Amino acid sequence: MRYAVIGTGAIGGFYGAKLQRSGVEVHFLLHKDYTHVQRHGLKIYSKDGDFCLPAVHAHASPATIPVCDVVLIALKTTQNNLLKDLLPPWVADQGILLTLQNGLGIEPQLAQLVESDRVILGGLCFICSHRGDPGTIHHQDYGSLTIGAYGDGYQPQGVTPLLETMARHWRQAGVETFLAPDLGYARWKKLLWNVPFNGLSVVLSATTTEMMATPPTRALARDLMEEVQRAAASQGVAIPTADLEQMLHSTATMAPYVTSMKRDYDRNLPLELEAILGYPLAVARGKGVALPRMTMLHQLLQHLDRQNRRHGSGTPAAPG
User: Fold this and answer.
1) Which of 76, 190, 262, 287 is catalytic?
2) pTM, entire model
3) Do 289 and 229 meet the contact criterion of CB atoms below 8 Å apart?
4) Active site (annotated) includes residue 190
5) Contact yes or no for 203/299 (Cβ under 8 A)
6) What's the rounded Cα separation, in Å, for the pair 107 and 105?
7) Distance CA 47, CA 262 (A)
8) Which residues lie across from 130 on neighbouring strands?
9) Strand partners, 6
10) Which of 169, 173, 193, 292 pairs with 72 at a CA distance of 20 to 30 A?
C-alpha cells in the first residue's frame, strides 16, 4: 500500500517515518518545513533509538501527491476545515482514511467529506512526542497505536480483516499496535487522559509530572476523569473505573511531558477545545447530564485561548 501523511508534525511525522523506515512508500504533505525536509529528510530522536531518513517524498501541495491507498490525517482538529480541499484529489477508490487526531466526533466529519466507498478508521496514539527544529521530531515516551473501524454513530464494528492487515503494517514498522473492536469506547477512553491533562496543563502551566506530584491537582484530574466516565455512560459506553486508575498510573510513571495543548498555547496557536471538550460536553448535555468541572475547564480554556491568540500569530495557513 502507498501511504500519505497530512500534517507532518509530532504525530504524522513520527508514525510516517516509522512506516517509511520499514520499506513502505510514504508521501508527506508539509508547509513550513517543506524546503528543509525536501533537502535533508526527517530526523527522529527517539527513546527507542534515533534514526534519519535522508530522502523522503516531500510535497508542498496535494496536487503533486500520487493517488494513495491509505491517508494518515495528523492535522490538529482546529485545521479540519482544510480537509475538504486536501482530501478528494488523491484518496484512492476504496481507499482508507486513518485519522490520528485527538477528541470525539472526528470520523463523522470525515464521512461527510468523502465518497461512501472510502473506509474510515480511527487511530488513537498513546505517545509523548513533539516537533523540534525543522524536520526533527523528539519521541520521549510510549508510542503505541490503537486502531478501530468507524461505523455510523460509532456502532462497534469488531476486528475486521482490514484492521488485521493494517496492524501487520504497523507492527512491521516497529509500532506496538492494538485493535479496538469498539472505536467509540476507545475514543472515550482516550478522553480520560486528554480532558484533564491537556486542559489542566494550560490552566496550571504545568507538565504531567508536576500535576501528578501535586495531590490536589491529581485529585482534580481524577474528578475530571469521572465526569468523562459519566459523559460516556450517557452515550451507552461503559468505562470501568480500572481504566481511570490505569491512566493515572501511566501518567505518573511517564517521562515529564509538556502536553500538545500546552505547546500550542505557548506558540499562540488555536487550542483543540471543541474535539476534546466541546463535543463531549454537547452530547452529554443532550442527554441531560451535567458535568460542572468539565464545563468550567472548557470555559476557562476558551477565555485563555481567545486572550492568547490576540497576542499571537493565529491559525497556521496550511498543514504540516
Assistant:
1) 190
2) 0.92
3) no
4) yes
5) no
6) 6
7) 22
8) 138
9) 29, 73
10) 193
